[in-house]
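Progress narrative, work stream C.
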Amino acid sequence: MALTVTTEARDDLTLVTLGGELDIYTVASFRQDLETFDPASSRLVIDLSEVTLLDSSGLGALVSLLNRARSGQGQLGLICPHRRLRRVFEITGLRRAFIFGDDLEAVRSAFEENQTGSSAA
């Protein structure tokens, strides 16, 4: 199955909506689609609501984006309302590495909490 990638500027962030399978067969096009974004200097939200499969290649691409965001002042959040998909992050030990939310507003709130928590430390 193919992967659809749509991007949309939303106020202070970029929303990237994925649909289909993010796996070894589609990860190269996903990486290419996101080459123009600089996650180190922006807020990027990846919507995984319509993702039906996430394998280790797809997970690796998300971790790469996370590392790029952390190299600067950027933030990366994941919309991931489905328990079966979140389980992939739990099993791999990456659940705490990412900012999660069931929808865009939940991710926005988590961004704010994360930013407030890091500035208070």
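Work stream C, second folded protein:
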Amino acid sequence: MKRLVILMMTLICLHGAVANPRYIPQIYAAVDVNQAGEGVLYYSETGQYLHGTFRRYYEENGGTAIFGLPLTPIISDGGLRVQYFERARFEVPVGHDATNEVSLTRIGSHFVSQLSPEDLAQPPFAGISNPGADSLYFAQTGHTISKRFRDFWQKNGGLPIFGFPLSEDFFQAINGESIEVQYFERVRLEAHIVHNQVTVEIGHLGKALLYESPNLVAYTTPMPGLQRVATATTSYKGAGVAKKTNIARAGAMIDGTIVPAGAEYSFLKSSNFADTDFVEGYGIINGQLSKIVGGGLCQVSTTVFRSASNGGFAITMRVPHTYVVTTYEDILGFDATVLNPSVDFRFVNDSANPLLLVVHNDPQKLRFTVEFWGVPDGRTVQYDGPFISNVSKPGVSVWQYDPSMKYGSTHQLVVGRGGMKVSYVRTVTRADGSQLHNDNFLTTYAPWYNFVMYGPGVVPPAGVRLR
């Protein structure tokens, strides 16, 4: 029996070995992660965090000077994940968190649309019929970019960042001051006099848009300075295109989730299955491999479970797989499956501060990581085990026909392995030495068999079961 103590501020190293009754993997306490994690920035001015895709886009396109400070965390808005900044709103379709898929909300267009018909009929918005030869003119909107703003527009991103001009330059009363402005699809450029010099700035339309929705204002509540308090990594080596796609999209779906102090996190309730473009992958349904939309989500839920367990948080619902899953099951008996709408994974943030879930997906190394960021309270986690019993042999091989496969082809989806019971005892201790949790994570794996898909023209071998 191994007694493995994991401090709140240590990293769990999970290796990619295939699980079987002859290999009993261990959990190793390894790297001190008391330093700020790569990919997460904290802005004390607003108490907000910037990470992942939105951070990359932010830094690659001008950062604070162009977009201002972050005002909210990442928010789910229908089929979008959005984050508000002083001068912009970032948006990306749920599950499509690639840097080149981030878009900037057309905030300038939004505020121009709120002007009265009388205002829109005024010369600044009426358009230019005879632009000068040296004008930077856009027939798409019928407007030029004034000399006052042209250099700033060209040097700081042009069309991708600012969009087309929607007006000519004119003077507008803003906060009691008459300021020279020009509206573009995504911004409002403003000319301010600073120390007797004219300085071009981007108006705070992101903030104005945020405060149009009273229900969003609560998101501006500052978060405390957080540290990485738990982490877990799993491998999806050998995964097909469908599983890789679904892991990436499910990871993006939960990235940035905030779990308030005392609140219960639900994987299903925190997910957006309706607006996420999951693709078909294989899942185990009633003991049989079947194509389901979202196959591969259990990789994500398992990694969230491991991180929550390693962080010492209260696990309130965890359903193990029916069979040992070799694709990421590098630690026997340490998994959590999900199946919408009833099979969920849940935990309670029983710390005194909020938790921020941060996802790192590495499609090159085929590694998926979930980090919990919070305020360390001195709790420690100890695992006793694994305790393995009732080991049984694999069952008879199963071959299942798939008419969509290439003629004469086969594809082995599962390598047969035995059944067994596996248990871990987890003890979570407070900083004062008193016990906070004592759990027995018990998993009963049924024996699993070689599972082979075969296409037209293939004759299965004798002695196998056909489906």
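The chain has two domains: 3-38+225-466, 45-216. No further action is required on this item.
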